[in-house]
Each structure stands twice: as C-alpha cells, then as structure tokens.
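seq:
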Amino acid sequence: MADGLRYSVHDYEGIKVLDVIGSVNAVTAHQIVSVIDRITEKESMILNMQNVHLVTSAGIDAVVDVSVRAKAKEKRVVLLWADSAVKKMAETFDYYSLLVFAESLEEGAMKIEYYT
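struct:
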C-alpha cells in the first residue's frame, strides 16, 4: 500500500526510539503523532526516519506540530536519519529551527541531553 505506515518502539540507552517504515503523509501522520504525543508526555524521544521513503508537506507539518508540543512540555523529538528531501522541505517551509536532526543514535541521545 503506497500510503502505508508501520512502526515499532524500542529503547536505546533508556531513550525511546520510534522506528517508522513507509510514508508520512496526510493519511498516515496521525498514527505516529499519537505515539509521539504519548511518549513525550513522559520523556524525550528519537524518531527514526531511516526507512521512511516519503514525507509530504502534511507529514512534515505533523512532525513539526508534535515537536513543538513536546518542546512546550520540556521534551524533545529528535529526527534520526531524515533524508535530504525532508531537510530541504524543513528549510523551504522555515521549519528547520523547530526540528532537531541527528545522524546516529549516539548523536540523538547527546542532543536530547543537551536540549532538555
């Protein structure tokens, strides 16, 4: 299914990591937003985007919204292995300053420690 999305949650050194597979778009974004909101009620987390093959403007809007809500709760959502298209979209929409990017789990953990 082109609009499909699967996910799982695991721990990395005490930090929740949400592994996402598929597309993040208007149809699927609510799935990960719901999980991220639940996690960030208690703690910061890493959103692993390594296996996300498409993020639409609705998808990036949802990720920004949930990241901003997490920050308001003094938590963070770190985007791990977001591809260049996602970074370009964030820059184009002037969302770059609202998101935290990492290129390794170690970097993501360090950024969570730094930003919280």
